[in-house]
Write a structure and sequence with these properties.
The chain is built from 16 helices and 18 strands. The protein has 430 residues and is an alpha/beta fold. The strands form two sheets. Strands 9-10-5-11-4-1-3-2-16-17-18-15-12-14-13 form a 15-stranded mixed β-sheet, sandwiched between helices. A three-stranded antiparallel β-sheet has the order 6-7-8, with no helix packed on it.
Length: 430
């Protein structure tokens, strides 16, 4: 990142840390120089940014709706002050939300603040198996509510009908933009926008079965002040700015090398992360599990984890990942919020201790865990590099002593993701 007077083109607000990185990855793939801010940047940060896109990572997915709305509006004000021409509100490709929101309330508030009357909601990410058909979200070949997401400890998703889910969260009328209209191209989609608006619809769930659908939607949405969705919806946005002569050709994925120790930290209880932890254990590599009940009992879990990492010559995995039944058992004893916050604080303290012991490369699984770790490490800005797996890029912090980080949504990544990420952060990815 260098000093520049250039104004950013696209301003993004993400409701968690790994989701922000996922979106930034998509924009870099499209040729947009992208930086990610952990929280709303200060004025001194704004003065030194040179990027085509700015992604502000909030931790608002599971906070009270009033707090999520206030934070998101503050982020919007900051992005508009930087001159951003379009705003993107990013949430998970599995439409993660609590019973009260926050996708609906935040989208509605942003739309009103931008003096606009219509936007799309499209979490589809076909490359990672998330598709939408007639308003229903599929994860691979399963409906959302049969995919394992119904067991999510914080945001259980029990309904695959996104029109119904979103309508329960907003006072705006929610409609559907069907796949057969999208298949006819951007001009037809814009015609459907006009029809939906005439029906009084303020937000429309958009079907998407493949990447071409997302490119079509992106082209059609060039003039919408606000877009909302998963990172897949951003596929077509860079080309809009390029077509308008506003985007320069640039190697957007170049990152500086970072030397030092490395570690894997996994806090997600998702199906994908469980598989990645299992793969690590099956390989016989050193791993230590964090027990929330031991944390609650006051046992020196953080010190034990740091000693475990220091005593091993190999790279270690420190994890709290467990089965849905185990998670529920812990939550019943400690409460949902207490169980989660105990583990997050522990991972933050472990990360700080590891950095003091020379660790400079961190692979982190889980949005809440990633948020806790980057905050504990004092990371404010991330430069986004090349993709490791769909939705997960390598990143380097702007701290005085740079850190290389891979921030992975719990649901993302192949089974050997940890190995792939470690290799890429070390600079020897194949």
């Amino acid at each position: 990142m260098t000093l520049s007077t250039a104004r950013p083109l696209l301003g993004c607000i993400a409701d968690d840390f790994t989701g922000a990185t996922d979106l930034a990855n998509m924009l870099v793939r499209g040729g947009m120089r992208t930086v990610q801010s952990i929280g709303i940047p200060g004025t001194e940060v704004a003065a030194g940014l040179d990027a085509d896109a700015i992604v502000i990572a909030l931790k608002s997915r599971t906070t009270p709706s009033t707090d999520a709305v206030a934070e998101s509006l503050a982020a919007l004000n900051w992005l508009r002050a930087q001159g951003c021409e379009q705003i993107f509100f990013k949430y998970c490709s599995t439409f993660d939300s609590t019973a009260a929101g926050n996708i609906g309330p935040v989208s509605e508030a942003l739309l009103k603040a931008l003096n606009s009357d219509f936007t799309l909601a499209c979490p589809a990410f076909p490359e990672n198996g998330r598709t939408i058909f007639r308003g229903h979200l599929f994860v691979q070949d399963q409906l959302l509510n049969e995919s394992g997401m119904q067991h999510h400890p914080l945001t259980p998703m029990t309904d695959a009908n996104l029109v119904r889910v979103l309508q329960s969260q907003t006072s705006l009328k929610v409609g559907l933009l069907r796949y057969d209209s999208i298949a006819q191209g951007p001009e037809k989609v814009r015609e459907k926008f006009a029809e939906l608006r005439a029906q009084g619809i303020g937000m429309a769930i958009a079907d998407a079965l493949c990447d071409q659908d997302l490119y079509t939607l992106g082209t059609a949405c060039a003039d919408l002040p606000l877009l909302t969705g998963g990172s897949g919806l951003a596929l077509g946005l860079p080309e809009n700015f390029r077509r308008a002569g506003k985007l320069r050709d640039f190697d957007a994925s170049s990152l500086p090398a970072v030397s030092g120790g490395e570690v894997v930290l996994a806090g997600s209880a998702s199906v994908a992360t469980n598989g990645q932890v299992a793969a690590w254990l099956e390989s016989g590599r050193p791993a230590l599990r964090i027990d929330p009940l031991a944390l609650a009992a006051g046992e020196p879990v953080v010190a034990q984890a740091l000693a475990f990492a220091k005593d091993n010559e190999q790279t270690v995995l420190i994890y709290a990942t467990s089965s849905p039944d185990d998670v529920k058992a812990v939550q019943q004893k400690l409460g949902v919020e207490q169980a989660g916050s105990l583990v997050e604080r522990a991972f933050g303290e472990i990360a700080k201790g590891l950095r003091q012991n020379g660790v400079r490369r961190f692979v982190i699984a889980g949005g809440e865990t990633s948020g806790a770790v980057v905050q504990a490490l004092g990371v404010q800005l991330l430069q986004i590099g090349a993709q490791i797996d769909p939705g997960v890029p390598a990143t380097v912090s702007s701290t005085d002593e740079p850190l290389a980080l891979a921030l992975k949504s719990g649901n993302f990544g192949c089974r050997d993701f940890f190995d792939k990420a470690l290799k890429q952060l070390a600079g020897d990815a194949k």
